[in-house]
């Protein structure tokens, strides 16, 4: 009997099965990378927005929920509708805690107040410390 130089049906079936398994695994890896990138972007945006909140912090904002657009529109005119809608959908929970209060020396009325400001934007918590003179 003469041997043929071609692949058998079983060999082709096994190679197609293996290729589909490898292809599926690669697609799953790609999907998880996209989720990780999206998570990183949201965390970065939250940190940047929190930095803006810290820099504009005022005691009227203490322990309040605010929409970021209402805070920003006091200082800037936002003309881009996409950015405006993005900011309108972002809420920040601002929590302020007094940490330490002390005076420079016993004879002085000059004192310093340290307090911690925390924000929660999109479920990401960020914090900073602020120092005010008494």
Report on this model:
By secondary structure, the chain is an alpha+beta fold. The chain has one domain. It is built from three helices and four strands, in the order H-E-H-H-E-E-E. The chain is elongated and about 110 Å long.
Short description:
This protein has helices spanning about 10-55, 70, 80-90; strands at about 65, 90-105, 110-120, 125-134. It is of the alpha+beta class and about 130 residues long. The chain is elongated.
Topology (elements, then pairings):
Layout: H1 9-55, E1 64-67, H2 68-72, H3 81-88, E2 91-103, E3 111-121, E4 124-133
Antiparallel strand pairs: 1-2, 2-3, 3-4
Strand arrangement, major sheet: 1-2-3-4
Shape: elongated
Strand-pairing-aware structural class: alpha+beta
Strand content: 25-35%
Order of helices and strands: HEHHEEE
Helix content: 40-55%
Distance between the termini: 102 Å
**Low-pLDDT runs:** none
Largest sheet, strands/sense/barrel:
4 strands, antiparallel
Rounded Rg: 28 Å
- Count every beta strand, where a strand is a DSSP E run of 2 or more residues: 4
Notable features of this structure?
4 strands, 134 residues, 4-stranded antiparallel sheet, 3 helices, elongated, alpha+beta
């Amino acid at each position: 009997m003469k041997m043929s130089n071609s692949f058998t049906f079983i060999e082709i079936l096994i190679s197609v099965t293996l290729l589909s398994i490898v292809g599926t695994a690669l697609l799953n890896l790609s999907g998880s990378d996209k989720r990780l990138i999206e998570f990183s972007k949201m965390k970065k945006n939250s940190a940047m927005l929190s930095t803006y909140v810290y820099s504009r912090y005022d005691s009227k904002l203490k322990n309040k929920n605010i929409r970021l657009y209402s805070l920003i529109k006091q200082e800037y005119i936002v003309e881009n509708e996409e950015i405006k809608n993005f900011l309108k959908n972002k809420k920040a929970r601002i929590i302020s805690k007094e940490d330490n209060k002390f005076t420079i020396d016993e004879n002085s009325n000059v004192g310093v107040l340290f307090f911690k400001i925390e924000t929660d934007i999109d479920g990401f918590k960020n914090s900073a410390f602020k120092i005010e003179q008494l």
